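Page 47, continued from p. 46.
Same chain as before, 299 aa.
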Amino acid sequence: MLFDQIASNKRRTWLLLIAFFGLLALVGAAIGYLWLRSAVGGVLLALIIGAIYAGVMIFQSTEVVMAMNGAREVSEQEAPELYHIVQDMAMVAQIPMPRVFIIDDPALNAFATGSNPQNAAVAATSGLLAIMNREELEAVMGHEVSHIRNYDIRISTIAVALASAITMLSSMAGRMMWWGGAGRRRSDDDRDGNGLEIIMLVVSLLAIVLAPLAATLVQLAISRQREFLADASSVELTRNPQGMINALRKLDNSKPMSRPVDDASSALYINDPKKGGGFQKLFYTHPPISERIERLEHM
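Result:
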């Protein structure tokens, strides 16, 4: 089952690419229609930007994501317990030793990144290291190492890159709207335009506004199941389901991250870094911790 899931994750990488590049093309077409007088030109521009983002993340994902989250790399001498636990989990999972990073933040959290096991890295917050005992820390690092072994990190890396590109393009289009560029350039056409012209204008504006939301929903859909799988895989590595359960309970009681975490990388963390309430719950990229614990208790 586990190896079938790994193969499924590899296939989903391509499906994810298609979905995100489709959103990119839609935003590009909207920008091209409104400002460049060419939807095709806008699509080409958006796809080029998306390809650049994806290429940078695939080849330099560790450095980019760690910099985005304020993580610093540590050696075995600087953080011996964390380093040895990651080393042990990697050995059991039969993957290369990931690079190890620490985020100076009192919240309890961790994540893994990279495009494949050969260039992967894990990061833990200083709060996690201060609060978790060894069994719980093993469970959390087992969870992150499982993301590496199961190739979840490749999906997450591509998702971060393309979601960032979509958000950047939509933000750029929003600023152009405030400057009034679309109105000035299309005013003459709209004055004499027919119903189709108006419909295209409305669709273009909706695409620009809703594309970042759609990108978030795609990330949400792929993130939830990979968290369940990583929890179960951690138990397989540690042979200690109670350690994972206890770690999740502590994570559930953690405060939000004190440093800002952008939406594109929120899904990487083992625990929701923002812990928003109310309407924000509809867009959680993580399943409820209570549900994750319940699944582990029934393993």
